[in-house]
Amino acid sequence: MSHDEPETSGSNNESKTLSESLESLSAWEKEMDKVEKEADVYRLKLAQPMYAKRRSILKKIPKFWYIILAENDEFAEYASPDDLKYLEYIDDIYVNHPVVEKGVEKTTINPRDFDITISFKKNEMIQEQSVTKSFKVVVNDNGEEHLESSFVEIKWPQELSKINPHLIKERTNEGKSMTPDDKKKYRAGMKSFFSWFAWTGMKPGKEFRNGEDLANLISEDIFVNALKYYIVALSNESGEEDSDEDDSSEGEELDLSDIEVEDKKRALEADVDEGHQAKKLK
User: Fold this and answer.
1) Given this model, what pLDDT does residue 280 score?
2) Where is the sequence biased in composition, kind Basic and acidic residues (predicted)?
């Protein structure tokens, strides 16, 4: 027994050291998290006034946001083809971080909480309006983060009112059962960009799908990299025009390589057919 005591004692010391180290790491992680939040707030305090300055400039550029949204392949996954003609009248997209305005010292606001404002200018297709949707970072019991939001009302285009899920549901709540046609329109409406404004993140399978992904796409990519996307879109348009102008074959030597390959292929097929015929005659 005496031979086992030193080994047991050493094992206990190692376990105690490991436990103390893990506690220290946990404390370090909390301190690091605080530092990272302070860095985020500092960056946002410097950046937000610059985005406010850019905002006033962009409002003077016709169809700036529409050009970006229409050219963005990822955004296309969150909008139906019927939405596009109405997005043409968006004259402002702005992302605001409340922590900058309210101050991180006096509140528990997460620096990653944000608001997205989307405005439609005066036109005949959709009502002039400015809608702000707020998003909050929520931490699950397992430590993972996700976004949640509140329902915010937006005036749908009159032409799309027949597929507006909110209106269809209102009719159902009045005692009318949802017909197969209503269900079809409801599903179509839930795929519209305008349904995203009703997304909360608390009703999986019963609201706009992937609402969190769209919120992050707008706040972290489309809004931040707007100028880059716009320049790329303009260069693409310019490239298409050049390609149309250069599409004249007059005075140019024709490339016959494809035609020659096709001729050889046909000749080979003819030889094969002749061979089959000869075998049949024998």
Assistant:
1) 44
2) 262-282
- Report domain 19-153+209-236's class: alpha beta
Of 162, 209, 207, nearest to 185 by C-alpha is 162
Q: How far apart are CA 100 and CA 118, in angstroms?
A: 20
**pLDDT, tens digit, 9 for 90 and up, residues 77-104:** 999 999 999 999 999 999 999 998 865 5
Q: Distance (Å, rounded) from C-alpha 141 to C-alpha 280?
A: 79
The 10s digit of each residue's pLDDT in 142-163 is 878 999 999 999 999 999 999 9
Helix axes 226-245, 64-71, angle to 10 degrees: 80
Whether the predicted pLDDT of 258 surpasses 50: no
Q: Average pLDDT in the 167-192 region?
A: 88
Q: State the average pLDDT over residues 245-256.
A: 43
Across the beta sheet with 114-120, the strand order is 90-96, 114-120, 129-139, 145-149
